[in-house]
Amino acid sequence: MTHILAFAEQRGGALRKVALEAVSTARGLADGQDGEVHALLLGAPGIAAHAESLFEYGADVVLVVEHDGFAQYNAESASAFVADRIASGAYRAAIFAASAMGKDLAPRVAGKLKTALASDVTSLAREGDAYVVTHPTYTGKVIATARLLAKPALISVRPGAIPAIAKPRTGRVEKVAPVGDPAKSRVVVTETSTSDSKKLDLGDAPVIVSGGRGLKASEHFHLVEELADAFGNAAVGATRAVTDEGWRPHSDQIGQTGRVVSPDLYVAVGISGAIQHLAGMRTARTIVAINRDKDAPIFKVADYGIVGDVFEVLPVLTKAIREAKKAQG
Amino acid sequence: MRIAVCIKRVPDMDVKFRIAGHAKGVDETGLKYDMADFDGYAVEAALQMMEKEGAGEVVVVSLGPDAVQETLRKALSMGATSAIQLKCDEVPFDGFAVASALASELGGATYDLIMFGRMSTDNANGVVGPMVAELLGLPVVTACSKLEIVAGRGTARRELEGGAEFVAFDLPAVVTIDEGIARPRYPSLKGIMAAKKKPLATKPANLPEPRLVIARMDLPPERKAGRIVGEGAAAVPELVRLLQQEAKVLA
Q: How large is the ipTM?
């Protein structure tokens, strides 16, 4: 049991950024040890085409299961397959993303294997016979450092916490047959309502522009969308107050009870900075806040703040960003 | 319908935490405790289903020291039928250990539905519900923001990244509850009085040796104090310059 398994998450046939992060994390653990990094990729026929990207980020082997039943995430068959693979005994550790999918998948796998899971970690390192992980607790106000003694060690990593770093390997693809019928499930998906699939997901976007109650009404949210559009690589988020009001869907909510994000740039528009919101975005690399109240708590975590009326500042900022982007070509 | 709801006692998060002297947890001095947010939604959703059906029972279960009895009593005062404390000195950080103890209790009884909050607000691991389901061999639906049970069949709405999905499943099953499902009611005076007479059983928690153990707890490093670039639209050019040249995030 020397290899490291990394679950490579895909959605709609496209690899997600968290897949590369998982592989890169596994590479970091494998370097200096004997084992290989095995990336596990489940998807519809044709998914194997993504193996190259996984080699690029450090996979020695890409285990591919192609089956129509894996086109969409099927929790029961995916967890059965992953658990079966880990139970083969080849692995010292298995790395998942703590994305919505990973948060569903990893504890199922751990339950099947009757073992512990270090969930939503922001760092990890091998220390003697254990893995030492950090995990934000108490709405991000306390950081727990824990020792994971279980073998194999199951770990899910917070999206964006450990960057994906290219470390190309000359790898090989191994096609693997599914276990049982991947289309079968005791829980049947009857309908999905995804927002515009062309839009960047909050977990994948390098830039997030997020709006709060300071926007006053849902019809003003276009100002946030236009700024996101000007960046060109931005997703739109919202505070809980805004999603509670129904101005934006629940899935856009950033905070302790919504999505936890770590983009390169987070622009908080008309957001006061309630604890529950800060828990979801305080690990962003750079934070910009625009708020009319100079005493708003958001300015305590913001790298750059503008005190002012969002309705005045936003159109000017949108134009300036558009021009800056254009100047860069 | 027999419903079990697993709940956790956690501190109110709206405070500045201090680390305890032993460095393996927060200093509990002065903290106020209540049911974890998502667990409150789960209890409320269970009560509404029982009331709609006009029959059945809601059993609340909590693992921990005697202090959890207060949390269980609160759920009883909201309307739960009975309570079980799985007694241990300390709630392990290892969610699998917790799941094992819960599964050993819940597996011995016949519940149509076992409910959890999506995650606790203190440790925020979010693993116990699906682990219990796997240990009991039951189907599980995580992060439900809507839930309906009709004639032994459940339908739920799940919150996903960038959307939602609707699922159908047969009971018995395990569900974990996201917010949006139902705001927990406040216990009425009558409910509080009635709760005192409701059964609360205490049993030893059947905990395995934890394999994920806290080494220490720390307060996160403070974010470096930022600066106010300026006021109003006039500050925009300077902000853009800083984003380009200092933060280098406009590439």
A: 0.94
